Automatic annotation (TrEMBL):
<dbReference type="GO" id="GO:0003987">
    <property type="term" value="F:acetate-CoA ligase activity"/>
</dbReference>
<feature type="binding site">
    <location>
        <position position="312"/>
    </location>
    <ligand>
        <name>CoA</name>
    </ligand>
</feature>
<feature type="binding site">
    <location>
        <position position="530"/>
    </location>
    <ligand>
        <name>CoA</name>
    </ligand>
</feature>
<dbReference type="GO" id="GO:0016208">
    <property type="term" value="F:AMP binding"/>
</dbReference>
<feature type="binding site">
    <location>
        <position position="550"/>
    </location>
    <ligand>
        <name>Mg(2+)</name>
    </ligand>
</feature>
<dbReference type="Pfam" id="PF00501">
    <property type="entry name" value="AMP-binding"/>
</dbReference>
<feature type="binding site">
    <location>
        <begin position="192"/>
        <end position="195"/>
    </location>
    <ligand>
        <name>CoA</name>
    </ligand>
</feature>
<feature type="binding site">
    <location>
        <position position="546"/>
    </location>
    <ligand>
        <name>Mg(2+)</name>
    </ligand>
</feature>
<feature type="binding site">
    <location>
        <position position="533"/>
    </location>
    <ligand>
        <name>ATP</name>
    </ligand>
</feature>
<keyword id="KW-0067">ATP-binding</keyword>
<dbReference type="GO" id="GO:0005524">
    <property type="term" value="F:ATP binding"/>
</dbReference>
<comment type="similarity">
    <text>Belongs to the ATP-dependent AMP-binding enzyme family.</text>
</comment>
<dbReference type="GO" id="GO:0046872">
    <property type="term" value="F:metal ion binding"/>
</dbReference>
<feature type="binding site">
    <location>
        <position position="522"/>
    </location>
    <ligand>
        <name>ATP</name>
    </ligand>
</feature>
<dbReference type="Pfam" id="PF16177">
    <property type="entry name" value="ACAS_N"/>
</dbReference>
<keyword id="KW-0460">Magnesium</keyword>
<feature type="binding site">
    <location>
        <position position="506"/>
    </location>
    <ligand>
        <name>ATP</name>
    </ligand>
</feature>
Length: 655
């Protein structure tokens, strides 16, 4: 994971010449400006990038640390900033979104059209009584409607919480319950890889599980032709609510700290946390990082392949590119349908100039391309590309080199962007016209971001020595709290021993000579599978919730060539340890059960059965031993505190 290469790629001269941040000296000057007067630096950018209804007079308020406030006496509207403002600047006819459906149909909307659509949805929501501060859960696939629904919430000051369409009814129910949402926006179905998958039916199932009594309305966007059931009084077609509404809608001007959205993510313990983001500070960083990290310009075609159900889709589809008046792609489908050349074909067809995706996608497309020339990037015209990006997990140098050579034609810088749901936007990343690149390293902090590596007591560690990744100073787009749980927020991110630094949860190391950062992976019980973040505890709870079969379960990650990490579960059944076909059959039942409890993305790749788990005499499961077994490594660790050493051999056997 911490592998880096030693090849250095300097920014191409033509890019340096025109980049928003042009040359390494310009990067350094911005860092110096931030260091010299932190408040003035962020204040300057917040005035330049955001249109405020009421200008702020104070930048950072740290009087209630770690509950920081930014631009607190300013008011704004995020949707105004992303839409109206662009129309007012003369971009009304410019294409905002190029939507490509799973089957290849293309729909384009201009800024004026998107604004009209957002206003109609916003008016529709208002007509149902949805108001500032109400939570709205959005459970929908990649679509113009999805982006518009998020923007419509922002327009009326409602707080959206998008739930990824791959999550199960149970997960959806838990999130609706935790937010206390008044409405759900969904679609009849989603289409992926040529198949229609239900969405509304899952919403029905989630609501039937109970605990969602706050929901008054379910709005359904029509995507397919599948039959759905509509509950009288609760469920309405979006078209019936929105289409007759006026195409203008006065925005709700909100305070900068007003929550824009909640997004659930996994922690090391317990249930997923509702990460709460602000309006002003969040929008600033989403816009600023889109501008500097991707060097977005007026004539670019930007494509972030993430789903709007993840933070990457929030910052780099719904908010950042639109705030800058950019043109972007929204893609409904999957990278391998109708074949593994889909991404390359779309880049060619839409003349994409900036392409942002996850290492796991690249690795799986490498495999496909190596097996079949027809889906190799060389079979497509990718000359429109000028910048490539990577996000979600470390990118190994081999995948980096392939991406650079075969997708970028050797001429496009790759920005390896390190950040998190909690950080709102990029934290450590190259700037394409400024930072020399080293494959496998996310290079240096974004200007104004104070990432550092410390030991367990918060003291800096020298370069070349690994440690804990922290952020020393608060930044505008940081998480404000965990929804409804201030205490958990402080405990998770501001542990007392770290001197008031933000704890990212990752390990990292800086290069001795260059100071470049390499992320070495999570230091807590959080897994990263295909760039999706999951807590081991969540998967364990899902397994043991199969009370008929499972007595005990422990989940660890192991390295995987394609998905980065793979989920490996060790399970003790309430019946004798199965082998052969019986073990396979039970493993399938348990996998499906996890799929039902959390969603298909959480299904363990390996399930091993044992009569017991390796435990200390005090009963603590020794996960580090399980990690070695999962990897197929010989056990070299000290096992003297283990109560039942014989169990290791049994778990190491493949059953
Ligand atoms: C975790 C955050 C960032 C948005 C998508 C994921 C890992 C993320 C990188 C990178 C190495 C990375 C970290 C981080 N991660 N980007 N460029 N290099 N690791 O957001 O679901 O909140 O996950 O993803 O472990 O903590 P998330």
């Amino acid at each position: 994971m911490s592998e880096t290469s030693h090849t250095i790629y300097t920014p191409p001269a033509d890019l340096v010449a025109t980049a928003h941040v042009s040359g390494f000296a310009a990067y350094e000057a911005l860092c110096k400006e931030a260091e010299a007067d932190y408040g003035a630096y962020w204040g300057r950018l917040a005035r330049e990038l955001i249109s405020w209804k009421k200008p702020f007079t104070q930048t950072l308020d740290d009087s209630q640390a770690p509950f920081f406030k930014w631009f607190a006496d300013g008011t704004l509207n995020v949707s105004y900033n992303c839409l109206d403002r662009n129309v007012e600047r003369g971009l009304g006819n410019k294409t905002a979104i190029i939507f490509e459906a799973d089957g290849g149909e293309v729909t384009k909307v201009s800024y004026s059209q998107l604004l009209a659509k957002v206003c109609q949805i916003a008016n529709g929501l208002r007509s149902l009584g949805v108001k500032k501060g109400d939570r709205v859960v959005i459970y929908i696939a990649m679509s113009i409607d999805g982006v518009a629904a998020m923007q419509a919430c922002a327009r009326i000051g409602a707080i959206h919480s998008v739930v990824f369409g791959g999550f199960s009814a149970q997960s959806l129910r838990d999130r609706i319950n935790d937010t206390g949402a008044v409405a759900v926006i969904t679609a009849d179905c989603q289409v992926r890889g040529g198949k229609q998958l239900p969405l509304k039916a899952i919403v029905d199932e989630a609501l039937a599980l109970g605990g969602c009594e706050s929901i008054q309305n379910v709005l359904v966007v029509k995507r397919g032709g599948n039959a759905i059931s509509m509950t009288e009084g609760r469920d309405k077609w979006m078209a019936d609510v929105a289409d007759a509404q006026p195409t203008t809608c006065e925005p709700e001007w909100v305070e900068a700290e007003h929550p824009l959205f909640l997004l659930y993510t996994s922690g090391s313990t317990g249930k997923p946390k509702g990460v709460q983001h602000s309006s002003g500070g969040y929008l600033l960083h989403a816009a600023l990082t889109t501008k500097w990290t991707f060097d977005l310009k007026a004539d670019d075609v930007f494509w972030c392949t993430a789903d709007i159900g993840w933070v990457t889709g929030h910052s780099y589809i719904t908010y950042g590119p639109l705030a800058l008046g950019g043109t972007e792609i929204v893609f409904e489908g999957v990278p391998t349908y109708p074949d593994a050349g889909r991404f390359w074909k779309m880049i060619q067809d839409h003349k994409v100039s900036i392409f942002y995706t996850a290492p796991t996608a690249i690795r799986s497309l490498i495999k496909a391309a190596e097996a079949n020339d027809a889906v190799h990037p060389k079979s497509y015209d990718l000359s429109s590309l000028r910048i490539l990006g990577s996000v979600g997990e470390p990118i190994n140098p081999a995948a980096w080199e392939w991406y650079h050579k075969h997708v970028g034609g050797g001429r496009c810088p790759i920005v390896d962007t390190f950040w998190q749901t909690e950080t709102g936007g990029h934290m450590i990343t190259p700037l394409p016209g400024a930072t020399p690149l080293v494959p496998g390293s996310c290079t240096l902090p974004f200007p104004g971001i104070t990432t550092a590596i410390v030991d367990e007591t918060g003291n800096d560690v020298p370069n070349g020595q690994g440690g804990i990744l922290v952020v020393k100073k608060p930044w505008p787009s940081m998480i404000r709290t965990i929804w409804g749980d201030n205490e958990r927020f402080v405990k998770s991110y501001y542990p007392a021993e770290l001197k008031g630094y933000y704890l990212a949860g990752d390990g990292a190391i800086r290069d001795e000579k260059t100071g470049y950062f390499t992320i070495t992976g999570r230091i807590d019980d959080v897994l990263n599978v295909s760039g999706h973040r999951m807590g081991t505890m969540e998967i364990e709870s899902a397994l043991v919730s199969h009370t008929e079969l499972v007595a005990e379960a422990a989940v660890v990650g192991r390295p995987d060539d394609t998905t980065g990490e793979a989920i490996c579960a060790f399970v003790v059944l309430k019946r004798p340890r199965p082998t052969g076909d019986e073990a396979k059959a039970i493993a399938k039942i348990l996998r499906d059960h996890v799929g039902k409890e959390i969603g298909p993305i959480a299904k363990p790749k390996d399930i091993r059965f044992g009569d017991n788990l390796p435990k200390t005499r005090s009963g603590k499961i020794m996960r580090r031993l399980l990690r070695s077994i999962a990897k197929g490594e010989a056990i070299t660790q000290d096992t003297s505190t283990l109560e039942n050493p014989a169990i290791l051999d049994q778990l190491s056997e493949n059953n």
